[in-house]
UniProtKB/TrEMBL annotation:
Keyword set, alphabetical order: ATP-binding, Nucleotide-binding, Transport
Domain ABC transporter: 8-238
Spans through the membrane: none
Organism of derivation: Pseudoponticoccus marisrubri
First and last residue of the signal peptide: none
Protein's UniProt name: ABC transporter ATP-binding protein
GO molecular function list: ABC-type transporter activity; ATP binding; ATP hydrolysis activity
A Pfam short name: TOBE_2
A Gene Ontology BP annotation from the UniProt entry: carbohydrate transport
């Protein structure tokens, strides 16, 4: 995706705490009105990057541009951003209305303008009946709505979310996730959202930046990241359960492995096929079983090791030649541990990675 006029542009960003490099020569362009998710496991640098954009951390080197303006050394209040934190950070002694208006009063806005902004934010977030309550009288989801509203009243171009749903239970998270997506569709503001939850990332993002060790490994649409992971880490991180991997070697269009030789017909190589040790990945949902496996170019005779009924799906772990594979089956499938089961897949749905570099082949 080529961006001619990015809303946020990060160039050669570095951040070190002593001898520890937290962000490493990082580049990122976010388009105007785009919803970007920073995704990765704990310690990958995603919240640190967000805090650098917000101005809450001073960078060691590099530049940050917001709306074409260099804000690298500007105060957070002058960057034109609204930020929503993991903790709600509401003033407990104030009503919801007072929490929403507090920053606007400090900025010296006229009373009628403050009232208008608070009323509009409350309408968008559907918290109008809560305006006279204090935070202690609110649920976790309601408090997070108020925290979002406090950013919303600032009428800024860029919103930053630092794991805003991680303190909520699963049902509340799912509900608020929908509300945040609808909020973005309504406002069309640029939003950057930090999470370690891949479901949040895949459902919310226009594009996802997957981070590891202070670097962005892949920055692309959810569909492209799922369909063509750039490296082994991305392939393992996206998908639940994780992608299956088989160790072997590639030579002359054949993947040789203990489970048998696999002809890589239809596989879309990222470059010249090459030769050498490799890992073949196949997602559980791309493995057929039973009669459906008969039509697949690659077929394996396996034994069922474990069955996990999930209602709509059944996850089945099968074993073949000392290798375990997860298979996603229909929720009505009836299989038992110890049962023989034929499975199969098409090489075109597989993913190949160089074993040494872990890059996609």
């Amino acid at each position: 995706m080529h961006i001619t006029d990015p809303s946020i542009s990060i160039r050669n960003l570095k951040l070190s705490f002593g001898a520890v490099e937290v962000l490493k020569d990082l580049d990122l362009d976010v388009a105007q009105g785009e919803f970007v998710v920073l995704l990765g496991s704990s310690g990958c640098g995603k919240s640190t990057l967000l805090n650098c954009i917000a101005g809450l951390l001073d960078v060691s080197d590099g530049q940050i541009f917001i709306g074409g303006r260099n804000v690298t050394w500007e105060e957070p209040s002058r960057r034109g951003i609204g930020m929503v934190f993991q903790s709600y950070a509401l003033y407990p002694q104030m009503t919801v209305e007072a929490n929403l208006s507090f920053g606007l009063k400090n900025a010296g806005l006229p009373r009628d303008e403050i009232a208008r902004k608070v009323a509009e934010a409350a309408r968008i977030l559907q918290i109008e009946p809560l305006l006279k309550r204090k935070p202690a009288a609110l649920s976790g989801g309601q408090r997070q709505r108020v925290a979002i509203g406090r950013a919303l009243v600032r009428d800024v171009d860029v919103f930053l979310f630092d794991e805003p749903l991680s303190n909520l239970d699963a049902k509340l998270r799912a509900g608020l996730r929908v509300e945040i997506k609808q909020l973005h569709q309504t406002l069309s503001n640029t939003m950057i959202y930090v999470t370690h939850d891949q479901v949040e990332a895949m459902t919310l993002a226009d594009r996802i930046a997957i981070m590891k060790g202070g670097q962005v490994l892949q920055f692309d649409t959810p569909h492209e990241i799922y369909a063509r992971p750039s490296c082994l880490y991305v392939a393992e991180f996206i998908g639940s359960p994780s992608m299956n991997f088989i160790d072997g070697a590639v030579a002359e269009g054949i993947f040789a492995a203990p489970v048998g030789d696999i002809a890589l017909e239809g596989y879309d190589f990222a470059g010249p096929p090459g030769t050498g040790p490799a890992r073949l990945g196949i997602r559980p949902e791309h493995i057929a079983s039973g009669p459906e496996a008969e039509a697949m170019p690659v077929r394996l005779e396996t034994v069922v090791e474990l069955v996990e009924p999930l209602g709509s799906d059944t996850l089945v772990r099968v074993g073949v030649q000392g290798q375990s594979l997860w298979v996603r089956m229909d929720g009505q499938a009836v299989v038992q541990p110890g049962q023989a089961l034929q499975v199969g897949f098409a090489p075109a749905r597989a993913h190949l990675f160089d074993k040494a570099t872990e890059a996609r082949l």
